[in-house]
Amino acid sequence: MGQQTPLLLLMVIGTRLLSCESRRMHLKDRTIADSDPTKYAIVFDAGETKTKMVIYKIHSKTSPLHVKDVTQLHPSLTQVEPGIGWLAERPSAVEDYLLPLINAAASTVPEEMQRSSPVFFLATGGMRRLREDLANATLKEVKRILSDKRKCPFEFDLKDARIISGENEGMYGWITVNFLKETLLPGKSKATYGILDVGGASNENAFESSTNVTLSLTLGERKINLFSKSYLGYGFEQAYHRYLTIQMLSQQSLTKGLVKSPCHFKGSKENVTIGHLVVIIEGTASIETCRSFILEAFFSGSDGSPFYDQPDLEGDLFGYAGIFYIARNLGLVESGEIKPVSVATFEKTSRKSCSEDYKKTHTHKSVTRDCFRSNFIYELLAKGYGLNEDKVIQVGNELEGFDLGWTLGAVLYNTRLLV
To answer: Is 100 exposed, middle or buried (0-12, 13-18, 19+ CB in 10 A)?
Structure first.
């Protein structure tokens, strides 16, 4: 027995050494995984008319982060309709609404990276306009789903599902454009770009300013002062609904539920529901009447315009979202490109387009509202923002291979990749 003890001792020591070596190997592997510079981030942009999902792949090995270090991925499904705000009175429908997007994200992000990939659910004007109790009930359901690892395999913090302010929405859009234009890199003194974003429920503007400052942020070693403001109710869908409501109320003697609209193409007809009434909107394309109405109702009405304290927009501007869609439908820009468009061009082309016969020139039902929208954009730029007719805006929906919008800026800011 005594002769076996040294052998037994050696076996025990050998086993422990092997166990320790195995542990070091495991820790080393974990360190490699933790230091992997490739990350993924998922953003749900919950707007007025849809919820859009964007996924970014980020290679953050070196600082500062460059455009080439980020890639926008293309999952099999990128959006669902309508906007989640329309589910506010039946939150039980939220799970079936979101799961197709979550599943598409899970099929796009590598499985081994999912638990370390943050997911953000950021709601904008479509949720800002809701009653607080309805918005909270909807967000509570969103948080439940994103917290359940059986349904959502990604990293999720409860604070990352929220309604963002219009001010922050503008700031995120500003970060997106200026990151893609590389004006934020340290050591560079490039002038930054301002942004104009027209959504479904609101529109935002943001630009760097030394005199009109609503928020300050630090990116790297650079402190930036911004003016950023949002106008709720001045997005396409909410403005259009307000326009139709006023038109209907002003035409007291409705004939067979017919409402004549000076801001619709001549010859167009559209069935719409206003409140509990279903009416037919018939276009008359009276452009001067249309513009006078928009000016009075939105920018100089008896209740006053919310643009009364809007400072002059500073610097070069990028216009995207609704501004791009209208410019594209007017034939001024193609998808995937950036083109300079003047305020005077918006005035001329919107007037010309609305004067054309709808039946001869328009074949898709979705453009029946473009006469109103194009004139609304012109009045927004000229009267709301006070831009001169010769002011040029860079208009597009993509820049450097990325969708123009606020989601990239939100990821860069909330993950502190630019700090």
So the answer is: middle
**Cβ neighbours, 10 Å, residue 271:** 9
At residue 187, the pLDDT reads 77
Q: How far apart are CA 183 and CA 245, in angstroms?
A: 44
- HEC secondary structure over 159-181: HHEEECCHHHHHHHHHHHHHHHC
Cβ(52)–Cβ(79) below 8 Å: yes
pLDDT-derived band at 352, boundaries 50, 70, 90? very high
List C-alpha distances in Å: 311 to 21, 134, 166, 228.
66, 34, 17, 10
Least trusted range by pLDDT, from 10-19, 106-115, 229-238, 279-288: 10-19
The H or E element that residue 126 is part of is: helix 125-128
Taking alpha carbons only, the member of 195, 194, 192 closest to residue 184 is: 192
pTM for the full predicted model: 0.89
What is the rounded distance in angstroms from the CA atom of residue 201 to the CA atom of residue 325?
15
pLDDT of residue 252: 56
Query: How far is residue 331's CA from residue 379's CA, in Å, rounded to a whole number?
Result: 19
What's the sign of the alpha-carbon dihedral 374, 378, 380, 383? negative
Of 228, 230, 234, which is closest to residue 216 (Cα–Cα)?
228
Average pLDDT over the chain, rounded to an integer: 88
User: What letter does residue 273 receive in the DSSP assignment?
Assistant: E
Degrees (nearest 5) of the Cα angle 48, 49, 53?
95
Side-chain half-sphere exposure of 47, counting CA atoms within 13 A: 27
* CB-CB neighbours of 168 under 10 Å: 23
